[in-house]
Amino acid sequence: MLSSSGATAETLDRFYEDLCGYSTSPLWLVQEEALVAEPRSKALPFLWRWRDLQPQALRAGDLIGTADAERRVLMLLNPGLNRMATTNSMFAGLQIVMPGEAARAHRHTPAALRFIIDSQGGSTTVNGDRIPMYPGDLVLTPNWTWHDHANDTDDPIIWLDGLDIPLVHMLEAVYYEPYPEDVQPVTEPTDSSLTRYGAGTLRPSWETSGAAHSPLMHYPWQQTWETLQRLAPPRLTAAPMTA
Ligand code: GTQ
Ligand code: FE2
Description:
By secondary structure, the chain is of the alpha+beta class. It has a domain at 50-203 and 212-225: Sandwich (Jelly Rolls). Helices cover 23% and strands 22% of the residues. It contains 6 helices and 11 strands. The strands form 2 sheets. Strands 1-2-9-4-7-11 form a 6-stranded antiparallel sheet. The chain has a 5-stranded antiparallel sheet with strand order 6-5-8-3-10, with no helix packed on it. A hairpin with a 2-residue loop joins strand 5 and strand 6 (129-133). It starts with 8 loop residues before the first helix and ends in a 12-residue tail after the last helix. 2,5-dihydroxybenzoic acid is lined by residues 71, 73, 93, 95, 108, 112, 147, 161, 163. InterPro entries: Cupin_2, GDO-like, RmlC-like_jellyroll, RmlC_Cupin_sf. One of its GO terms (molecular function) is dioxygenase activity. It holds the Pfam family Cupin_2. This is Gentisate 1,2-dioxygenase.
């Protein structure tokens, strides 16, 4: 049977005030909001348009040097969230590297993915593996892997970054380390993660990856497109992002 004390409002007010002084609070006053009500996200639907942002990225390329910005990134901040976040768990940004530039090597506990938009052979090096980047490619830099970006082409390169910074930040596990030099050495043949692991279920028998993450860092658009085509109705024929 449920019980009732009959305590007056004043008595309860005094009790709650006292609890406050012990850094304590009654759950029964917030139980509904804390546990019963379904989540209502503060994140809002929002559209960032390429035609708006590309000129601003190029402007950043003109106005900001690599001495002022280790990463030249326009953050896509959700208008409903008052923090460095695009969704509750993910951060996204547009990054631009100008011709002849390199974005210095570092590593951090948040993991990153990059969807390449403009690049005809700019590159990201991940743990010594240099990955050439073309439009539509997906490049991964798992947590705590060394990475730097280079643009040895004649045109600016731009891609969309996605990092789980908000999630790792919430866990109070964001750590960062600069590489001792500006650029890390390339220690593998170009695109070696793709060479070894890009054939899906066909893997070299002598490779034993002990890493806690996928050993494949590069998903070239051409492969993605061909796979989608095999899955889709036959009317899809032209690859819109083909380099
Ligand atoms: O390219 O290494 O958008 O470290 C945010 C943090 C990109 C990067 C971002 C980063 C990077
Ligand atoms: Fe980074």
